[in-house]
Amino acid sequence: MHTVALDTPGEAHLLIGNEAIARGALEAGLDFSAAYPGNPSSEIMETLAAVAKDLKFYAEWSVNEKVALESAAAASFAGLRAMTAMKQNGVNVVSDFMTNLTLTGVKRGLVLVTCDDPGGISSTNEEDARLYARIADIPLMEPSSPQEALEMTRFAFELSEEIGALCIIRSTSRISHSRGRVVFGQFSERGRRPHVDTSVSMNTFPVLPKHKAALGKLDKAQEIFEESPFNAYTGPDAPELMVITCGTGYLYVQEALALLDLNKRVGVSKIGTTWPLPDKWVQERLKQSEKILIIEEVQPFLEDNVKSIYAQHVSSIGLKTFYGKASGHIPRIGELNPDVIMQALASILEIDVSLRDEGYAEKAKKVVDELVPPRELGFCPGCPHRASYWSIKNALKWDDRDGFVSGDIGCYTMGIWPTGFNQVNSVHAMGSGVGMSSGYGKLDQQGLEQPIISVVGDSTFFHAGLPPLVNAIYNQSSFLLIILDNSATAMTGFQPHPGTGINATGDVATTVDIESVCRSMGTDVTVLDPYDLEDSSKTIYSLLQQSDGVRVIIMRRKCALVQRREGGFPYEMDVKEEACMGENCGCNRYCTRVFRCPGLIWDTKAKKTRIDPVICVGCGVCSDVCPEGAIIRKEVSHG
Amino acid sequence: MAKTGMDLLKKEVLEPGLCVACGGCVGLCPHISFFDGKVICTDSCDLDDGRCYSVCPIAHQTEKTSIDKEPVGKCISIYRSRAKDNRLREKSQYGGTVSALIIAALEEGLIDEAILTSNGNGTSPRGVIAKTAAEVIECSGSRYTSSAALEAFNKRIKEGSPRLGVVALPCQALSLALAKDSQKNSDQEIPEAELTVGLFCTWALKYRPFKGFLNKEDVTESLLRYDIPPPPAEVFQVFTGHKTREYPLTEIREFVQTGCAFCADLTAEFTDISVGVVEGMPDWNTLIVRKKKGKDLVDRAVAGGVLELEELPGENQDHLFEASLLKRKRGKENWDKKKQT
Ligand SMILES: Cc1cc2nc3c(=O)[nH]c(=O)nc-3n(C[C@H](O)[C@H](O)[C@H](O)COP(=O)(O)OP(=O)(O)OC[C@H]3O[C@@H](n4cnc5c(N)ncnc54)[C@H](O)[C@@H]3O)c2cc1C
Ligand code: SF4
Ligand code: SF4
Ligand code: SF4
Ligand code: SF4
After folding, report:
1. Chain-centre distance of CA B244, in angstroms?
2. Under an 8 A CB cutoff, do B47 and A588 touch?
3. What is the predicted ipTM?
4. Strand arrangement, sheet containing A241-245
5. Domains in chain A and their CATH numbers?
6. Fewest CB atoms within 10 Å of the CB: A77, A146, A230, A508?
7. Min Cα–Cα distance to chain B from A546, Å
8. For residue B331, is it within any domain?
9. pLDDT tens, A454-508?
10. Which structural domain, as residue segments, surrounds residue B89?
């Protein structure tokens, strides 16, 4: 059983932040959980799903974040403690429901965890989901360590119940994914019996009184936060500089102060309850110093809110100088690190810091470059997406009308790069590729002559691809929809989805068949095997020649990693050296230069292509790419 | 040194839309293909120098074609000719000379295989290999859309280089001649054709827009052959298995390959023999015998009783020379104009 399920209060374990969040929810007696995967949040649900059967609570992968929160809210309405987790983009998706839920409130503890990705390391954007707490008038807390992540999550259920509102926990990649020592607490009661109280109607009307009530709940949260142990001050009584920070900022500040030996000169106010801010507590901290530096990642959320308290009470607080994002001392984009904070401290306190050797970065890069082979972001060996994009590229080139691909979110987003032959022209939110195609596909009336392809993954199709498809069909838009069905939510770690036939806890589920769904909407559906390059290229080409309505192709092949897990690939590959044309006119390394499966390597001495037997999985596709038939496949039997 | 690879081919020929789909550059490498009647670069090859550029007749038109010299190029003799076999003539464009000569060459063992142009069977005509009389007859008749037939030549050479006969338009004959030239200073093999039979040509059509036009006209059957009867008819005829349709020639001109305006060769001067129409005698061909190899084949065909030869009336010959010079002049003028801009 997973560590988080151990009933061993007081014991310490090494957990990543997301596991700590899951543990916090379990300690709070979680009854119901629902989520849609998305880095860096996915491990929360994965952890919960792994122990759900044993601990007898419900866990599901939902088709999208909005449905996940709606399901969790239903559980709360029925008297259960419920939680949902998502990445920052997911909060955009739930926002419509969330801002309405504020007015109805909740019955039992309901918690939304957002794991933001400052720097957009595994996201299509950089976004600060904390602002939604203000938009939706609900409380927000930000942990600074895995231990705090556990405690805050546990507390969030109590708070939610006490004030009758949804609560948000906001983590970031570095909290969610760093491993730390976490001391377990007690499990509380679980196994509540759900019942929906039909004497109370759960709706948002009348709007104004309910909005007022929601603000009252916030006031109550603020009162509670004034005394919260998640907010703490450390440092001298009258520091030269007061740092106010939250989340990861707190960790970097501690490190920076230690490195610069500034602990006696600088005070640190660490705030865990970032909305609503503990007004009085903040006023006291402001009074302590003339200079205030506010440190946080992405938006100046804390900064603006602290300044708002300051403006309201300036006569009693006195004149202060603020440093932070507005002053340019803290960057407004990307992740923070101790260096950035040291620089800010040095400039405010007018001290010299030599951060590191002048040419250090360059020297380090040189060393690393020699040791680490260059590697671009790319599809795995044997990936069906590489094959699909190959055929899409061929078809669009053959077509020669400057056609383009409107992309979506998943591994196949990498189609914007050479690994996908730079085929994807635009990428935005989940399902947006289909929505945009629906628009492009209507522009023929105004004279657009370029053919349009929309690519969407199977999981994304269920998440947000259906409404735009309905829209396109209804409005008689015209484009070719290619569903890249690799039967997994591969990008985020192979979570099952409605097309896979299993659910979050590993049981058999009803399979929602994409093909039948599309057919039932009245579109023609062609199913292709992406590994068959010739058939795929020609079929895509011929469907591009039609210009009547939405045509659907499903390119179906399991993710290479799944195929490998399920017994492997049929071939052992080899290159006939004498047949390989290499760099000569007639080829010029077509396989390693254009097709670029990492299983193929270019032998710079022999000037021939070779198979890297460690990397090549034996899908056999490159054999059909080589113009000379030099790459040969031999069938192997898997014993 | 100037780079003479695919990038230049793209820049000078393909991107400005001057490619006439002769097929010279197709089938040599995986980067260029002939798909649905059009020559397309699917990928970039990145080499500084390449065979594709060196064999392109558009890129080298002005260097090689005898623009200011003999009206019809090198020539031993000119006749009018036709196949003896009535049935062959019926299926052919005019006198069936080309089909008869190819069959003779195969049967006499002068060549192993012939590279011809298929009728496409509802898709774009393209280069095919014929080894038997039946296969040759299957290809009889002229499709006026570009077929990139040299793709089949290139592929066949790559596979094993048998002795090939090629029925070639002037641009294709030029491409084959260029390939032979470039072979001299390259370590890669570009073997030459054993026999080249040229077709006279004024222009060819772009397949895709022409096909689109026929689709609009609801012509969906196999397109067996096209013809343009002599002036003043000004019509374009399309023969399918079932019936003949006629369209005003002005409507069809819109689909002519842009690159044909720069072509300065009417009679396919770089061949062993060239064959065309005899104006006013739709059952006959004009036959230009250019080289010894061509003369041998014609002699054998006549001796074997498959080909009839007659003297070409002087008036027809004058007319041919006139037309040929006109095309040379037009091609040269267009090049000069292009160079100025
Ligand atoms: C595009 C084109 C334009 C032409 N323009 C003229 C012209 O302006 N004046 C003139 O006198 N003659 C022209 N011809 C030649 C003429 O149509 C006859 O092909 C020629 O006279 C031989 O007649 P035949 O009866 O011997 O042909 P057949 O015995 O019927 O043989 C015809 C041969 O043409 C080949 N062929 C068919 N279509 C094509 C194609 N698209 N590309 C290359 N080869 C093809 C076939 O492989 C076949 O072997 C043109 C031909 C083509 C294909
Ligand atoms: S595509 Fe084939 S011939 Fe070309 S380099 Fe690769 S293995 Fe060699
Ligand atoms: S067979 Fe070829 S394409 Fe498939 S994994 Fe191996 S190298 Fe890559
Ligand atoms: S004219 Fe011939 S050689 Fe030139 S680009 Fe076109 S097909 Fe290739
Ligand atoms: S006119 Fe010249 S370039 Fe055009 S098809 Fe005829 S021979 Fe080729």
Report:
1. 23
2. yes
3. 0.94
4. A232-234, A266-270, A241-245, A291-295, A321-323
5. 3-225 (3.40.50.970), 232-349 (3.40.50.920), 384-565 (3.40.50.970), 571-635 (3.30.70.20)
6. A508
7. 12
8. yes
9. 999 999 999 999 999 999 999 999 999 999 998 877 777 788 899 989 999 999 9
10. 64-206+256-340
